[in-house]
């Protein structure tokens, strides 16, 4: 605004309130008592106007919509609540469509656009299109039933003839890779009784005495059958895996996914 335009605005305002706000002469401009009283009122109005503009801007930036998230049943209550706690407070209008299933399918669900993000184990080979952020390290254990079983005596032998003992193992995925590595380290040609698409079923079948199982500790600890299984000392030879959140690289440009990804990476920074 030019000086002349500002002067006209002040004169117009003085006419409306019936008071002079400034004393003017050729050398100086001095604020009148009425002008001094008006100053805090004017500053308050300006401050409230700026706050209103900021709130209006924030409302326009509020993220709304739905995120499709895939994870295992166990991860839905072992890791998901903590992961989403801060996110929900920051973005209350974003809804989640939770899809649960075999964790070995997590990355495929993302690649096939059946989910925006997934909680997944880090595989040996991560697809180029996938980005992965670790949130936890997950140990695995070899478990046996606590009660009587057909192979109870075989487990007490020294050395144990593992080929006579039935095994229940993951059907695929990183947990299966860890199981295969353990068999190789132990020199075992496993007698596979059953392969399960879900880790939760492995614990249940072991508890019922069908065989020895290999499963992630987080699944064992959260299983209703956890008191009916025992960890074997050989578990220490199984390498843990990294659990994390993954999505397609291109999805990070999507505002909803980007918002969740920022919370995940910030949480990792706090933990480490």
From TrEMBL:
MF terms in GO: DNA-binding transcription factor activity; transcription cis-regulatory region binding
Domain HTH lysR-type: 1-32
PANTHER family linked to this entry: HTH-TYPE TRANSCRIPTIONAL REGULATOR (PTHR30126), HTH-TYPE TRANSCRIPTIONAL REGULATOR ILVY (PTHR30126:SF81)
Name the record gives this protein: HTH-type transcriptional regulator cbl
Keyword Transcription: yes
Family the entry assigns: Belongs to the LysR transcriptional regulatory family.
Pfam families xref list: HTH_1, LysR_substrate
Keyword annotations: DNA-binding, Transcription, Transcription regulation
TM regions (residue ranges): none
